[in-house]
Fold:
Amino acid sequence: MQGTIDVDKTYTITLRPEPEGGYTVRVPALPEIVTFGETEQETRAMAKDAIELVLASHHERGEEIPHSDQVVVHSVSVAVPA
Structure:
């Protein structure tokens, strides 16, 4: 088996503040990932660990590594009944 070259990829993550504190994180390109952290820094670290585990699992099973995503985020204003 020939050697492989590691390639750095960047994945977009979303952090949702939770009412009880902390943040839930999702990875749009890897929808199986849902994790949590108490602080933004901890949440980013949890996301990085989860992404690496999922990508390693894909690699071990011979599955294609999902592409890093190019998520575009916009805000939409809507009228809310008073």
In short: Helices lie at 40-60.
